[in-house]
Amino acid sequence: MAASPLPLAAAPLVIGSSTLRNRLVATAHASGFIRDGLPVGGDAEYWGRLAAGGAALLVCGGTTVAPESAPRQGNILQLHRPEAVGPLRERVAAMHAEGAVAVCQLVHLGRETLGAQSYYAPVAPSAVRSPREPTAPRALRGGEIDEVVEAFRVSSAHALEAGFDGIELHAAHGYLLEQFLSPRTNPRDDGFEVLERVIAAIRGLSAGALLGIRFSVDASEDVALRPDELAELLPAVDPLVDYVNVTVGVRTTYVRDMATERPPVLDDLARLRPLVTRPLVASHAFRTAASIGDALAAGADLVGMARALIADPDLPRKVLTGRATEVRPCVACNEDCRTFDPVLLCVVNPDLAPPGEPRRPAAPLVRAWDPARATGERVAVVGAGPAGLECALSLAHAGVADVVLYEAADRLGGQLATAALAPHRAGWAALLGFYERGLSAASVDVRLGQTAEPGAELEGFDAVVLATGAVETSPLLEAGAMASSVALARGVPSLAGAAHVVVADDGFGWWPGCDVAELAVAAGVPRITFVTPGTAFAGAIPPESRVQLLERLSGTCELEILPLCTATGISPDGVTVAHRTSGGATTVPADRVVVVGERRPRGALDYAVPLVLTVGDAVVPRRVAHAIAEGREAAVRIATAVRHRMPHGRA
Fold first, then answer.
1. How would you classify residue 249: left for phi > 0, otherwise alpha for psi between -120 and 50, otherwise beta?
2. Would 424 be classed as within a structural domain?
3. Could you tell me the pLDDT band of residue 457, with boundaries at 50, 70 and 90?
4. pLDDT at position 649
5. Which Gene Ontology BP annotations are present (predicted)?
6. CA Rg, the chain, in Å?
7. What is the 3-state secondary structure (H, E, C) of 255-295?
8. Domain range spanning residue 453?
């Protein structure tokens, strides 16, 4: 094997009684293959696949220690229950079979309910309300603290019985252990004593089991430890554990979106490193070989990732063998990976799927399917948005030698490229870079600035995949409004010099309207009026992203939100706004109007070739995840059909 381009990252590390094969860690997250609080089919396979990707230490998250900390929908592992041990043995065996060290992270949420319904009242060291909750928790009483310590002990015993190599205590993100440690949520000054008791209880189960602890490094006004408090705590905790894992944030901010382009803990490593003698894990937003190298150079012993490994579980092997350019990148969109609907999914990774499915379910529209007429393996993909890009790359990876990708524009990406131009949305550019590199490496024939009309141009092709996307429409465009896609494509100049911009949203609360608002801020627009027939601004974007968006907008301009209103016309006096509740109308003066219009599929042409499939927005405009999944599915079906002459449009 060739030498690693990151020799320190590839170096083994002895940690406690375990030896890690390298310095890359899969930090705590959940698979979603949990029903009624217990693992189900697919859980062990997920963790085995993650281990096969090369990470040395796998920390399984989403694991609670007590009934009052478990959401009633049962999608989080409840390790206080002994019946969890059996199925967890399968999970651990799958990780060990691929050479990984397996650790189980344990959490009691305390006053933080994750916004989920529970059968029980939330508890905390004191009845101090979280700003993320509508009511204050119930304060734990005397002997109940003993019950919390016992809950951690029992759950740890179950984890070790299942074969885990160790335990990680979750004292970050404002959850119960941090609530004990913070003077803002625990006036009794017994927080460290409680933590010591939990650690002693776990150590009493097994002297050789690994024990780690996770902290957030950035203070917040309501609970998180401040820098001086963490600096005082770390030297005291250091001799009690085998490693310290540092991350960022509280519940609504700990999953940073694509506006965070640099791992935030990098700036803290210099002050944290002298405070601990144990191995230090730096976590959050590490997605590239360069940032991994930066963390190790700054003093981290291990680098942790979660979403990056959900997007591409092979990231460790690729990075450590000099193939970092092949990593399918996490774009930090915070969409599917945060919903667990029905399991852990990923927008950019179509290989993650519900139980029983070989890949993410998708159904390209079959326009023609006659494999018997195919004479070879020539495939034309028409349109280089995310569906077309995924289809062309997947065809090439499947061994289809003659793939031609047509794109009428002079750049790849379609609406994905437009979205990448929005402020704080550059994560999509990383995905486009992945496709560009992959197509080049696979020698796919990419023809920019060319359309593929039926007839001689496509004569001799065996299959055509139509990925021609959609167009944005609205009656307001004829009245002088600018489409949101046009504004984003033109960038800041499209709104520069405007004193008042009206954004006419479609009411569904997704990113286009939010992106236009941020574009107006970037253009220096002092006043923005956001008109929406919906009930809220940014109501449908991921919750963590919404919190971060509102923080970015705070104090930047005069932003007025007009909910339950519809922009119905434009005149020299301004925008006519109809109010749903009153039935009346007002005129809002504006010198620039941007409308989030309805997206409609482009008209499809008829191609006289044996196999014709339509994918992505050309079927029905939806999200990037649908486009990528349908592009992959189309590639699988076509590659199978031209080789085996399958009679049906599904492989």
1. left
2. yes
3. confident
4. 46
5. fatty acid beta-oxidation, unsaturated, even number, reductase/isomerase pathway
6. 27
7. CCCCCCCCCHHHHHHHHHHHHCCCCEEEECCCCCHHHHHHH
8. 365-469+602-644
The answer to whether the predicted template modeling score (pTM) of the entire model surpasses 0.90 is yes
Q: If you average pLDDT over residues 540-557, what whole number do you get?
A: 94
Q: Do the domain assignments include residue 349?
A: no
Strand 38-39 with 34-35, pairing: antiparallel
Predicted confidence (pLDDT) at residue 650 exceeds the cutoff of 80: no
Helices (H), 475-525: 475-478, 484-490, 511-522
Tokens standing for residue 523: 């253009």
Residue 116 is predicted with a pLDDT of: 87
Amino acid identity of residue 171, one-letter, is A
Looking at residues 19-34, what average pLDDT do you find? Answer: 97
Based on the domain organization, do 141 and 220 belong to the same domain? yes
Asked whether residue 348 is assigned to any structural domain, the reply reads no
Q: Which amino acid is present at 399?
A: G
DSSP lists the bridge partners of residue 574 as: 571
Residue among 44, 167, 37 at smallest CA distance from 102: 167
Do 291 and 398 sit in the same domain of this protein?
A: no
The reply to whether 148 and 244 lie within a common domain is: yes
Per the structure, the count of domains in the chain is 3
Look at the alpha carbons of 123, 172, 22, 322 in this order and tell me if their dihedral is positive or negative. positive
What pLDDT, on the 0 to 100 scale, is given for residue 269? 96
Regarding whether 514 and 571 lie in a shared domain, the answer is yes
Q: What whole-number distance in Å separates Cα of residue 59 and Cα of residue 312?
A: 17
80 plus 117 within the same structural domain: yes
Same domain, 307 and 399: no
